[in-house]
Amino acid sequence: MFEKILSLITGLFISLATLFQGPTKPVVPPVNPPPARPAPNTRASSPAAARTPPPLPPAPEPVQPNPKSPEQAPTPKREPEKALTAHEVPKSIEARPIDLRSVVGLTCYFENTVDGSKTRYRGSGVIIREGTYQKGTYILTNRHVVDLLWTSKLPGGEGTEPNMKLKECEVRIFTAERTILPEEVYPYPYYDLQIVSGLQHDFKARLAYLPATKELSSIEDRDLDYAILEVFGKNESKYFAHENPRLPPASILLPSPEEWVDIITGSRIVMPGYAFQQTGSGSFDEFRLLTKDGVVKDIYAGDTTLKDVPMTILVEVPPDAYGGRSGSPIFYKGYLIGLVATKALPAPNSKDYQSAQPAITGIMENMESQTDTREIFENIFSFE
What we know:
single chain; 384 residues; alpha+beta; Thrombin, subunit H; 7-stranded antiparallel sheet; 6-stranded antiparallel barrel; 7 helices; 19 strands; 13% helix; disordered N terminus
């Protein structure tokens, strides 16, 4: 039974990678700058002790070319970046530690609305606002982790059962402080939740928001692979009634189109997440946080509603034998800038792999059509 579920998840994740037909166009900085964002918050994190990392995993088997992977489509060339003049000052932002307590492991449970059958999916997520374990704590993850009806309508998603409706997700967190410092590089320490936080889950969460799709093109609808969950309860068999475990949110960076192109492109990124390591029954019980890094190769906009909005990050990463990283956050200098949604495939003429992932600017631009994003996203920063 578990092998069947794992096979379904793995097939879904790979099929999602085959859907991406490549970014539509490079981001071109608009004539008028975007409206001002909320004033930044300033919350610090604490360092933690490291453990011995596992050996570098072997490279996965080559994946057949497909129309969605950006490495199979020619990468559009960007115009040369303009040189700084005497009146221009390069922008910067202070690097900060990544608080790994903001990265969560998810087990999501579904029930068939027709025959009552049940299934479950695994993924990762990142906390974007800290409330309590009863209300106001939000988690950002991928839409394909929690919305199987949407997934079933995508090319390659035909094997997904469309009548499966999300009931709830179990949320697993670190109960002790763990961080990745700005100066750390791959290979990173890894952490097993069974050792650090115990086998049981910590919280339960329900679906709060899906993308607003009314005026999106089919490409924008497909590439806005995000969903927001809200925590609504703690595991009372793990915590006493008086306990209120911390759920610290990640620091979020909102670059302008110019900043995406001129500053972040070419920079190193860090991606911690709960990838699969086991087969069989252990696939849903053993959570190990594995961190990998990569480089931002380019940034792309949408083609209709999000025409001038940075929407997709093209990243290049080393080979990775572990799939199942859906919903893992992407950090730049310790700030959240996107999510891992598709599996990396071999890049042409390179030993590394490439994949296109949703950017935080496109996500927040879409969310603004539904609600005040300052009520959902907490620690928002910008370049100085």
